[in-house]
Design goal:
Elements lengths: L1 H5 L14 E2 L6 E2 L3 E3 L5 E3 L17 H9 L3 H9 L6 H23 L7 H36 L7 H13 L7 H6 L6 H23 L4 H23 L5
Antiparallel strand pairs: 1-2, 3-4
Helix pairs in contact: 2-3, 3-8, 4-5, 4-6, 5-9, 6-8, 8-9
Length: 248
């Protein structure tokens, strides 16, 4: 337990300002996650609202936490979003977009019968990859914008401060980790199917919904309304690209 608490490198200091941490069970504010009694004696804090451990995951192995996050457990999401210091949001987003762009680029190449090894053709194919990355980035940006607009319209009191927007953006970026499942599709592209890609898309949307729900402490319905509006805006961008004659 002590090694898990102190050796992961992601757990912040035990004491913090009021409301710096959240109880993973009831989402109540907490001033500390654990108390250090010196000589290796640590005690997990108890939530004053629900009388349960504030964050039991600080004793868990990272693999167990990851499994619980994959299962979309709200407690695991609260632990990651509120009680840890993880700053991989941007890198994770870029990596997922690269995987998505490469998969689209492969599909585009499969549909092309031109096998001319000329340098001009190779440069054109390289430009196609950059174009796919740009399109994937714009689609995801429009999806997030749609979510923010709908949430601001439905619950304006939830997004009054800049910090609320930043926290929700980080939560959405982290919740796109499901796109990493595209890596096997990239490695074994001859085995993947549209159905598999559809399942990955659904899983990412479920993760996005859970991230919104946990971050803003909403019910299960409002996040899905926000995601639905985000999908409408994203598909509008796709239709715009198609009218421009671009393969997406």
């Amino acid at each position: 337990g002590v090694e898990a608490l102190t050796g992961l490198g992601v757990l912040p200091r035990a004491m913090a300002a009021l409301g710096a941490y959240r109880c993973i069970e009831c989402n109540g504010e907490a001033t500390e996650l654990y108390r250090d009694y010196q000589r290796g004696v640590l005690r997990i804090s108890i939530c004053k609202s629900c009388q349960k451990p504030v964050d039991k995951y600080i004793e868990y192995d990272p693999v167990i936490i990851l499994i619980n996050a994959v299962l979309c457990k709200a407690q695991a999401y609260r632990h990651i979003l509120f009680n840890t210091k993880i700053n991989i949001h941007g890198k994770l987003c870029v990596f997922c977009l690269l995987c998505e762009a490469y998969l689209r680029w492969l599909q585009l190449q499969d549909s092309s019968q031109n096998t001319d090894p000329d340098d001009l053709i190779r440069y054109a194919k390289e430009w196609d990859f950059y174009r796919m990355f740009g399109i994937a980035s714009l689609e995801q940006t429009s999806f997030f914008i749609g979510i923010f607009i709908s949430l601001w319209w439905m619950t304006p009191e939830m997004l009054k401060r800049k910090s609320d927007f930043i926290l929700l953006l980080k939560a959405l970026l982290l919740s796109t980790y499901g796109k990493l499942l595209l890596i096997p599709a990239v490695i074994w592209e001859h085995d993947y199917t549209p159905l598999c890609l559809a399942f990955i898309k659904v899983f990412v949307l479920i993760s996005n919904s859970q991230a919104i729900r946990v971050t803003l402490n909403l019910n299960r319905i409002l996040p899905w309304f926000a995601i639905f509006f985000g999908l409408i805006l994203e598909n509008s961008v796709v239709c715009l690209f198609q009218k421009m004659g671009w393969d997406v």
